[in-house]
Amino acid sequence: MTFQQLFLLSIILYVAGAVISLAMNRVGKVANYVSAISTFVAASAGMGLSIIVLVRGMTFSTEFSGFVPFARFTIEVDHLSAFMILVISLLAVATAIYSFSFDAQHAGKNAGIFGFLNNSFILSMVLAVASSNAFYFLVFWEIMTLASYFLVVVKQDEEAINSGFIYFAVAHAAATAIIISFVILFLHSGSFDFADFRNAEISPATKNLVFLLSFLGFGTKAGIVPFHIWLPRTYSSAPSTVSALMSAKVAIYGIIRVGVDFLGASVWWWGLTVLTFGAISAVLGILYASGEKDLNRQLAYSSTENVGIILMGVGVGMIGVASGHPVLGVLGILAGLYHLLNHAVFKGLLFLGTGSVIYRIGTKNMEEMGGLAKQMPWTGFAFLTGALAISAIPPLNGFVSEWFLYQSLFMASKSNILTVKALSPIFAAMLALTGAIAAMCFVKAYGVTFVGPSRSDRVREAKEVPMPMLAGMAILVAGCIALGLGAPIIAPYIGNVASALLDTSPIWVSAGTMVFPVSNSQAVLSTPLLILLLIGLLVFSLIIVWIQGGMKAGRRIDSAPWACGYSYSSRMASTANAFAQPLRVLFHPIYLLRNALVGLGNKIASYSKQAVDYINRMELIWENNIYGLLARGTVHLGKRVQAIQVGNVRVYCMYIIITVVVLLIATVR
Question: 242 near 144, Cβ under 8 Å?
Answer without folding.
Answer: no
